[in-house]
Every structure is written in structure tokens, then in C-alpha cells.
Design goal:
This protein is an alpha+beta fold. The protein has 2 domains: 194 residues, Periplasmic binding protein-like II (D-Maltodextrin-Binding Protein, domain 2), CATH 3.40.190; 198 residues, 3-Layer(aba) Sandwich (D-Maltodextrin-Binding Protein, domain 2), CATH 3.40.190. The chain is 42% helix and 15% strand. The protein is built from 18 helices and 15 strands. The longest helix has 16 residues. The protein is globular.
Length: 427
């Protein structure tokens, strides 16, 4: 294959393909999901335009493909139809699905020099757990995140709690939640203590509870789940008890998309959601708020999450060359800093945090450091072969327990049996 003219070391301006641009006009189609609030779409478009302006031989059509689920579905459909994108940001957890569908190519063949290998080694290890398998790198971390706990400092103060101290343990979250839950004269709850969404990405936020209780939902090879682990069952029982026993969280399914708005409007004093919502909260919360690592039980912990860049089969050598160059450019410190500041996603490389822009940002807004610091305790997001089916089964089990249709143990044992039936062929 043609040797890639990749970005070298820490260079932060776009490299030009001008040496061959006049003879090779390269068109790239780039699928990009928008699934959280904030400035993601306009920022990615601005960065893409800047790259194209500096590389006149490359044209990039950034296609906003909807949610993560929409994006992977469109990428698969387009590939099967013979018209795949050359590049896409898709959930890191969908890596095994894309491999199983034989849709993507690893980055390693384009990263052969010592400088290029050094660039690859510069990503946080926690993010690479969902990016590499079988000794190959299939995904490059970009719009990555962890869930964090947000709290309303005014509500804490009103409840007699220290507004600068978040709950550090499961027990404290219940204790604080009881003080924060407010009812009107008719006994109707006007403010819940905590809100953990159970739609959209229910497995992801629940995985935080499982990790904190010492459980891992799936192995590193993506071919075995541990849904019926007693520690997972205990974590689900705790989540259900927040509503049914402790009375600090609304009963039933809690919507992912509506959660930030509920927080802004005082319907909940604490919420669990992605650090990708950080800028959205900063821009829209009408009160002083705090951000903390998720509370611990047996240990600290959280799943990583968010999207990776993937290279798709069917592209020409020139297209893949340009795509890899674009990925290196947009993950370089200056561009990565702009992306992190605009969106709240975690800059996936340590060097980004050393830029003057990021230093000034965190000096003014310390909560931006919480998710980065939580990476020390983070584990890979639940990811398996046939990931959509397996996580769908798990999500259904969570929903059946949350809505009271089944007890946690029964729901998770049934989910494990179904997952085993799917994954057996991959062992």
C-alpha cells in the first residue's frame, strides 16, 4: 500500500497532501453520530473544514448519522450495499460487531514508523481496551467518555448537606438522596435525590454499579459474559432498591435524553450521565453544580464509553491514507483540546492536557478533570461479538427488574443463558 503521509510527533497543523493532490483528488465520506447535548456537530464540522482548507487535495463529506445506534446501522447497511463510508465514529463497544461483519481494517498497517507507533502508544490504556484485539488496533479513541455524577450544590445546601462534597459510597448516595428528595403537601415528589437513566444506554450506567461492586460484565475476548455473577445481581438489586426501598429515585424506566433537562429544572438533585454532557450542563444549569467520580462499593470504578474512529473496507489506498492522516491530525493536541473544551468529552491522550488551552480550561473549570482522573479506575465498556443482540438481551433484563416484572437474579440468569447461546460459537 502507498505509504501514508501521516502527522508526525506533536505537530498540530494539518499536513498537506499537495505533493500528489494535483493528480489525486481524494473524496472521503465520514459518518459522525450526535447523541449528547452541546456543541458536538458544529465543532466537528469546524475542525473538518479546517483540515480540508489545509489539504486542498482532500474533500471530506461529514454525514451526521444520528445516534450511535443509527450510525452503526447505517454504516453496516451502506457497506452491505457496496457504498461504505471510508471513515466513521462508532461506539468503541461495537468493535467486535464490525470485525464480525468483516467491515473494517486495522490501523496498524499505516502506523509503521517509530513516530507513528509512539503516537499510537500515547492514548490512555483504559480507552485502548475497547480499541484493540488480537494484537491489532481497530479503533482510535476520539469522542470518549466515562459516566460521572453531577450534583446541584444549591439543593445540597438547602438539604443541610455540604454543597462541595458529593457522595463517595453507595451508602452515602442513599443517605444524601433521602435528604434531597422533596415532597409537596400532597406527598407528591417534586425533587428526587438521584436519577440514573435506564433507557438509551442502560447497560452502560449500570455497568458503573457492577464495576464498583467488583464485577466485570464480559471478558476481554468478547465471547463470554458474566451477567449472573452474584456481584452483578447485587448491583442490580441496589439500583432497584433506590426506587422501591429507599425512595430516592423515580420508579420505572428513566429516560436518558430527558435527564439533563430534569437536572436543570430541579426535578433531581443528582444525576449520572456521560462526561460528554459536561459542556451542556455548564452552559445550561441555572445553578452552581459539582462533578464527581461515581460512588464506590467494593472499589472505585466506571466503564469507559463513547466512540472510536474506524476505517472501512472498500476504500482506495489513497482514501485510507487520507483518512488516517485526518485521524492523526484531529487527535493532535490543539485540535483535541478544542474538541474537549467544546463538548466535555475526555481528551484521549495525555499530551492534550499539557496544552496551554487545556491548562487554562481546567484552571477555570476543574470539573473537567474528574473523568480524566477516573480513568485510573475505569474498565472496558461491555463489548462482545454480536454486541447489539447481547446488550439488547442485557438491557431487557435490566428493564424487567427495574419495572418489577422479575427479580434481579431471575432476570440476569435468563439473560446469561441467552448470551451464552449466542456467544458459544465464538469461543
Amino acid at each position: 500500500m502507498m505509504k501514508s503521509t501521516l502527522l508526525k510527533a506533536v505537530a498540530v497543523t494539518a499536513l498537506s497532501f499537495s505533493t500528489w493532490a494535483s493528480a489525486h483528488a481524494v473524496d472521503l465520506q465520514f459518518y459522525f453520530p450526535v447523541s449528547v447535548g452541546g456543541k458536538a456537530a458544529e465543532t466537528i464540522q469546524s475542525l473538518t473544514d479546517a483540515y480540508v482548507a489545509a489539504n486542498p487535495g482532500v474533500k471530506i463529506d461529514a454525514v451526521y448519522a444520528g445516534s450511535y445506534q443509527d450510525t452503526v446501522a447505517k454504516a453496516i447497511t451502506a457497506s452491505r450495499g457496496g457504498n461504505p463510508p471510508q471513515l466513521s465514529v462508532i461506539l468503541s463497544a461495537d468493535m467486535y460487531t464490525l470485525i464480525d461483519e468483516d467491515l473494517i481494517v486495522p490501523f496498524d498497517q499505516y502506523l509503521t514508523t517509530e513516530t507513528e507507533k509512539k503516537w499510537l502508544s500515547g492514548f490512555y490504556p483504559a480507552f485502548m481496551e475497547n480499541s484493540q484485539t488480537g494484537g491489532k488496533t481497530y479503533g482510535i479513541p476520539f469522542q470518549r467518555s466515562t459516566p460521572v455524577l453531577y450534583w446541584n450544590k444549591e439543593a445540597f445546601k438547602e438539604a443541610g448537606l455540604d454543597p462541595d462534597v458529593a457522595p463517595a459510597t453507595w451508602a452515602e448516595m442513599v443517605e444524601f438522596g433521602k435528604k434531597l428528595t422533596k415532597k409537596d403537601a400532597d406527598g407528591k415528589v417534586t425533587q428526587w435525590g438521584v436519577r440514573i437513566p435506564s433507557s438509551g444506554f442502560p447497560y452502560w450506567l449500570f455497568q458503573g454499579l457492577a464495576i464498583e461492586n467488583g464485577a466485570i460484565l464480559a471478558n476481554a475476548e468478547g465471547n463470554k459474559t458474566n451477567f449472573d455473577d452474584p456481584k452483578v445481581i447485587e448491583a442490580l438489586e441496589y439500583m432497584v432498591d433506590l426506587s422501591t426501598k429507599d425512595g430516592v429515585m423515580a420508579p420505572g424506566i428513566i429516560e436518558w435524553g430527558a435527564t439533563p433537562k430534569a437536572f436543570f429544572e430541579g426535578q433531581t438533585a443528582m444525576m449520572w450521565t456521560s462526561t460528554g454532557n459536561l459542556t451542556n450542563v455548564r452552559d445550561n444549569a441555572p445553578f452552581d453544580f459539582g462533578v464527581a467520580m461515581l460512588p464506590e462499593k467494593a472499589q472505585r470504578g466506571a466503564p469507559t464509553g463513547g466512540g472510536n474512529f474506524y476505517l472501512f473496507k472498500g476504500a482506495s489506498d489513497e482514501q485510507l491514507d487520507a483518512a488516517v492522516d485526518f485521524v492523526q491530525w484531529i487527535t493532535a493536541p490543539d485540535q483535541s483540546a478544542k474538541w474537549t473544551i467544546a463538548t466535555g468529552y475526555v481528551a484521549p491522550r495525555a499530551e492534550t492536557w499539557e496544552t496551554e488551552a487545556m491548562k487554562a480550561y481546567v484552571a477555570d473549570f476543574a470539573p473537567a478533570l474528574v473523568a480524566r482522573n477516573q480513568l485510573e479506575f475505569a474498565k472496558a465498556e461491555l463489548s462482545t461479538y454480536q454486541n447489539q443482540r447481547v446488550t439488547g438481551i442485557f438491557n431487557d433484563a435490566l428493564a424487567s427488574a427495574i419495572t418489577g416484572q422479575k427479580d434481579a437474579a431471575t432476570a440476569l440468569k435468563e439473560a446469561q443463558a441467552k448470551a451464552d447461546a449466542i456467544l458459544a460459537e465464538y469461543r
